[in-house]
Write a structure and sequence with these properties.
The complex is a heterodimer.
Chain A: H1 13-21, H2 26-38, H3 44-53, H4 67-77, H5 85-91, H6 97-110, H7 116-121, H8 126-129, H9 143-152, H10 159-162, H11 171-185, H12 188-197, H13 203-216, H14 222-227, H15 232-247, H16 254-266
Helix pairs in contact in A: 1-2, 1-3, 2-4, 3-4, 4-6, 5-6, 6-9, 9-11, 11-12, 11-13, 12-13, 13-15, 15-16
Chain B: H1 3-15, H2 19-32, H3 38-44, H4 50-63, H5 68-74, H6 80-93, H7 99-108, H8 112-123, H9 132-149, H10 155-171, H11 176-189, H12 193-208
Helix pairs in contact in B: 1-2, 2-4, 3-4, 4-6, 6-8, 7-8, 7-9, 8-10, 9-10, 10-12, 11-12
The chains are: A mainly alpha, B mainly alpha.
């Protein structure tokens, strides 16, 4: 999305909020919810309108999903909206997988730990229960989003539930578990698991590992990130994650210069 | 390498029947460093095969200024993707004949990856290839462009502009002071932590450069 310049009249925040609140044009509402998140409209009226959209019944997909709720849940994670936390926790048992996924991701972004017990419930049944849904391209729960959120939210009480997912048959679920375990333990074993994933044959898996390594800021991965066959844009974002993680507690050090030299070579 | 061997490598590119075998054939041709391969590399830029295009860019960059006339000649007729790859090649070659193309791309190309690569390229032009009387005006234009690109909406483009400015100031020491002041301003005004860190690094490295008189 970042590469496009719109030729249309610029929208105003008031207009977009009104678009979200009207009931006639579902497409307009769907777009308005996305827009408020994209442009991080941190206004009380925007948050109110998005919270109302989380209860929408009008916009339904053929298989019973709630497209507007998905977008509203995603948008709330991008706003400074701590008061959205209870409603997002409520979304975690929505019948729509994608609403649950968006809610877990937004709860991770909002950083409020009160959601961890409910997130952990989505791991109930462990790996055995974490099966594909027949006819759908996903598992019964949004495991990646849940595992990643538990890691970011420092839910160390969830370690016994997270650990078994390192052996889930789906690679991306394994990576999400490794990412969370690293964030909870800082044990390099889990960082190295993700470095290994940079060697996978399939590009989507390498991309996923790049994003995970950037998210955890695993410094020893820098060289491997620069070398893995993938788009330079993604490798740069991953290295940015390492660098900023490191800069949190260090001034301009040898290590950060090393990472920036790698980034320079990828421009 | 005989011209027969080169023709053989070119045929391998033309006859490749899968994306993987195409990439491999282009890498082999790139390693041969033969001018006769230039038209083939340029064709590959338009195949919409990123793996092969990376190899073709590498092949063109290795041939350096010999590849520049063909790249410039064909650039306007390119589709969008091929144009982006050829700007990438021109950025890395650093031939001043590409200055106008790189300036336009750094300022306003649609794709951030092209703005990024052009900004870096503007900092590492081989100025000595220009007639002596044209150098200072061309460098001044590159400086203004890069200072402006430091306002791009994308962090990675601003990062590349900092890299470009550092390289430019390191070759044209008259700009050192002005660029350093600019980096100090960025330290206060730049919203992105990574870009700020890169500007700090650039300022320190410029400061440490020996003064040559």
């Amino acid at each position: 999305m970042g590469e496009s310049h719109s030729e249309q009249e610029p929208l105003t925040v008031e207009q977009v909020i009104a678009n979200l609140q009207q009931r006639e044009d579902l497409g307009l509402r769907y777009y308005a919810a996305w827009w408020l998140g994209k442009f991080r409209v941190n206004e009380s009226a925007a948050i109110d309108a998005l919270l109302a959209a989380l209860e929408d019944e009008a916009d339904r997909s053929p298989d019973g999903g709630y497209p507007l709720r998905r977008n509203a849940a995603r948008a709330l994670g991008k706003l400074d909206a701590p008061r959205a936390v209870p409603a997002l926790i409520g979304c975690l048992d929505n019948s729509d997988y994608y609403v649950r996924e968006a809610a877990a991701q937004s709860l991770e972004e909002l950083g409020d730990t009160s959601c961890t017990p409910v997130l952990m419930k989505l791991l109930d049944g462990g790996v055995a229960a974490a099966q594909p849904v027949p006819g759908k391209p996903h598992l019964v729960q949004p495991y990646e989003a849940v595992l990643e959120a538990l890691g970011t939210l420092q839910a160390s009480e969830a370690v016994p539930q997270i650990q078994p997912f390192l052996d889930h048959p789906t690679e991306k679920v394994q990576y999400a578990a490794a990412r969370a375990m690293y964030q909870l333990s800082e044990n390099p074993v889990y960082g190295e698991r993700l470095v290994q994933a940079l060697q996978e044959d399939r590009l989507p898996l390498r991309r996923s590992a790049l994003m995970d390594l950037g998210a955890i800021g695993y410094l020893p991965a820098a060289e491997a990130i620069a070398k893995t066959p993938a788009e330079n844009s993604l490798k740069l974002i991953s290295l940015k994650g390492l660098l900023e993680h490191h800069l949190e507690s260090n001034l301009l050090s040898e290590k950060s210069i090393e990472i920036m030299n790698l980034m320079d070579s990828l421009l | 390498m005989t011209s027969d061997q080169t023709q053989q490598l070119i045929r391998a590119v033309e006859q490749a029947d899968s994306p993987e075998s195409l990439s491999q054939a282009v890498w082999a041709l790139a390693a041969a460093r033969q001018k006769a391969a230039i038209p083939t590399f340029i064709r590959v830029l338009g195949y919409n095969n990123p793996g092969a295009a990376v190899a073709a860019v590498e092949g063109l960059v290795k041939l350096g200024e010999a590849a520049v006339p063909s790249l410039l000649e064909q650039i306007d007729g390119y589709d969008y993707g091929a144009r982006a790859w050829s700007i990438r090649a021109l950025s890395q070659i650093g031939d001043p004949r590409a200055l106008d193309i790189l300036t336009g791309a750094a300022e306003s190309d649609f794709a951030l990856s092209v703005r990024r690569t052009a900004a870096k390229g503007l900092g590492s032009i081989s100025w000595s290839q220009l007639p002596a009387e044209e150098v200072s005006a061309a460098q001044a234009k590159a400086l203004e462009t890069l200072l402006q690109v430091c306002q791009d909406s994308e962090w990675i483009v601003r990062y590349a502009a900092v890299v470009g400015l550092q390289a430019l100031a390191a070759t044209q020491l008259d700009y050192k002071k002005r660029v350093q002041v600019h980096f100090q301003q960025l330290d206060k005004s730049e919203p992105d932590l990574t870009v700020r860190a890169r500007a700090q690094m650039a300022a320190v490295q410029l400061q440490q450069m020996p003064v040559l008189n």
